[in-house]
Amino acid sequence: MAYLIGVDIGTSGTKTVIFDEAGKTIAQATIEYPMYQPENGWAEQHPTDWWDAVVGTLQKVIAESGIDTSDVRGIGLSGQMHGLVMLDRQDKVIRPAIIWCDQRTTAECDQITNLVGAERLIEITANPALTGFTASKILWVRNNEPQNYEKCVSILLPKDYIRLRLTGERATEASDASGMQLLDIGKRSWSDEVLTKLSIDKSLLAPVYESPEVTGAITQEIAELTGLKAGTPVVGGAGDNAAAAVGTGVVADGQSFTTIGSSGVVYAHTAEMHIDPKGRVHTFCCAVPGEWHVMGVTQGAGLSLKWFRDNFLESFSETAKAMGVSPYYLMDQAAGKIPIGSNRLLFLPYLMGERTPHLDPYARGVFYGLSGVHGKADMIRAIMEGVSYSLKDCLEVIKGMDIDVKTMRACGGGSGPFWRQMLADVYNCEVETTDSSQGPALGVALLAGAGTGVYGSVREACEAAIHTKSKNPPGAAASKDYQKFYDLFVRIYPQLKDTYKTLSTL
């Protein structure tokens, strides 16, 4: 029996899963770690926390599974995108990683736009300068912490830092590298033009591979630490969303998915490169070699719900613990008792600024219409609806780019029955789930299988391991009701846009 391992280095924790070649979960483990916000709008993590979680979860799944690790054919890595890991000559981390949701780099985005040119930047990198992307973070360190920048000899993304620790090799792959804003998206290689204009030395960056390609192997030291076999191949893997696409079977034209984790994503596969000239959604290389995807991102999707849970729903958490269920189960139950529109309460989920379709680091969360009649259940539902409306914003842009969206699958937080039906009704299209809930971890495990010969290709891997589990058609009446509130939702941000920036200066 051949086994594959997927390691997903996320924002809230690392999840490691062992699969057999049919995609069945053999063992899984998750270890969480904190995110630090030293200032308003900042977001950092310690790469050593990721590493400790990777080692701990590998040890757990190997022990739990009881497999002979010589039967592990390959390992794939997924990770949160855009994070900046800076290393010195001894491969020591210079400062905490600045991660994807950090919003401190507004000035650097202006700097990038001025140096490269707004239109030219989109032509090369397929995106406008964004605070969440890695390039602006690099410039921020150079502008504000020159002593740290001078020490830096290597820049890696989060999962690629883990790759270095596992294999001793510096490498990245096209899907994750797409989010650094230094990659020529059409050529799938570093842009000499962008690097020159930004005065970033190309030697700081790792070689770029395709997602299924083998990039290194487990070292003897790591084998002794984890229980893996030395020499086990590690493939390129993918950024979290590209990995989730493979893990959801979205690997061909017409296929799309929605996932709700800390952020929320609407993702559509495309064999041909499509770029929105207004930069309202992202175009990146995908995990299928030589192909692309277009996606919209809501920064504070599941994060908004978690924020509300952590700060206002202590009783829910206590009750859930006593019942042996997730607090989110009780939150779904409460929201389900509230009518569509949350009794005329709307929520703008911009707790961490926003990326798409509103490029605005100053945007913040808003409850609109809050009155004395509203309770916690109304607010829970309003948050879920607001996230869904924000994702619909992105989907409408994607459809307007002549990208065919024939099927929509749900994974992550959006795959639960209540939220899944809400998405079907808000999108007014059928939403499917698959028989695996492992998302990115399964995706990169399948990439490992494709890269080591377990499967003939990425698409063959998905055909072997992923099957449709459920389908939620939209309800005509519900879709009509949601549309009324969505039409109001899209009018609120333009009216508040100027006030957000003013608020940031007070």
How would you portray this structure in words?
The chain is an alpha+beta fold and 506 residues long. It has two domains: 3-248 and 439-454, Nucleotidyltransferase, domain 5, CATH 3.30.420.40; 251-433 and 475-492, 2-Layer Sandwich (Nucleotidyltransferase, domain 5). Helix content is 41%, strand content 21%. The protein has a seven-stranded mixed beta sheet with strand order 18-19-17-16-22-23-24, with helices on both faces. The longest helix has 30 residues, at 476-505.
Keywords:
Nucleotidyltransferase, domain 5; 506 residues; alpha+beta; 5-stranded mixed beta sheet; 7-stranded mixed beta sheet
Brief account:
By secondary structure, the protein is an alpha+beta fold. The chain has two domains: 3-248 and 439-454, ATPase, nucleotide binding domain (Nucleotidyltransferase, domain 5, 2-Layer Sandwich); 251-433 and 475-492, ATPase, nucleotide binding domain (Nucleotidyltransferase, domain 5), CATH 3.30.420.
